[in-house]
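Example S7 (structure tokens).
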């Protein structure tokens, strides 16, 4: 299982990358996509939507199940990965390259509120 050290991880299986401008890039972890199997659909939030921490922000679906995506922090959706509309299974082949949405957090990101790679690995073991 891949787990890049430069990301933060939520217990709901999203990864979070803090960008240089303070925005966040969010996707689903390798473990999360592995549990779902080949993805057939990704519902993403609308650009400009105001999300609340922990609120449902989208859905990833496979042939066998669906899983909600959750906003890691309060913030505004800056962009969504339009590529996933046509090829949702791109996440399966590259879960840390295929982001789902970008968020401008309402407050500075607090990495201490999330897991690092080692803690996430222990959680899913």
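Recovered sequence:
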């Amino acid at each position: 299982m891949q787990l890049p050290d430069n990301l933060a991880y939520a217990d709901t299986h999203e990864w979070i990358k803090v960008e240089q401008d303070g925005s966040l890039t969010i996707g689903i972890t390798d473990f999360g996509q592995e549990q779902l199997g080949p993805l057939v659909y990704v519902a993403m939030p609308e650009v400009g939507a105001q999300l609340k921490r922990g609120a449902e922000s989208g859905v990833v679906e496979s042939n066998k199940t669906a899983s909600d995506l959750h906003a890691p922090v309060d913030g505004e959706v800056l962009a969504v990965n339009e590529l996933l509309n046509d090829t949702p299974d791109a996440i399966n082949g590259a879960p840390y390259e295929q982001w789902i949405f970008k968020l401008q957090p309402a407050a500075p990101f607090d990495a201490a509120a999330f897991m690092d790679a080692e803690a996430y690995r222990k959680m899913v073991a």
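Notes on this example. The CA atoms of residues 40 and 58 lie 14 Å apart.
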